[in-house]
Amino acid sequence: MTYFRAVDPFPLESADHTKLHEFYSHLASGRLVTTRCLDCRTTAWPPRGFCGECTSDRFEWVDLPGEGTIHAFTVQETGLPAGFDGRRVFAIVKVDVHRVFAVLVDADPLQLRIGQRVRLAPLRVADDPKGNARWLPAFTPT
Fold this sequence. Notes:
The chain is mostly beta strands. It is built from 1 helix and 10 strands, in the order H-E-E-E-E-E-E-E-E-E-E. It has a 5-stranded mixed beta barrel with strand order 4-5-6-10-7. A 3-stranded antiparallel β-sheet has the order 2-1-3, covered by helices on one side. The chain has a two-stranded antiparallel sheet with strand order 8-9. The radius of gyration is 16 Å and the shape is globular. The N and C termini lie far apart (35 Å). 18% of the residues are buried. About 4% of the residues have low confidence.
């Protein structure tokens, strides 16, 4: 069965549409990064094109650790979009001082616990309309 996409369900991630496009290229290479303000040195999650503290739009990309701990999680068993198999586990993962909302892959919900260590495992999602690969932050239990 073939499914057709009426609209692009994912954020516009290309350099044509956002100055934060580098986040996705870093993620594709297995690195979780975020922005740090060049003026006040505040890091933000999710990455931002301007600083929420001082409103500067000058930033640099900095690496976050590739591991974190589960802060909270939930399991979606019904209402999955077409093409998704089984249950989906969504989690808030504490990475450094930030909390990242992500999918947990290769995770048995019955074996998960708050405080459990997880490592970055970027998830490839549907390609963009031009056929370029796209990625979302995802983690797997260690």
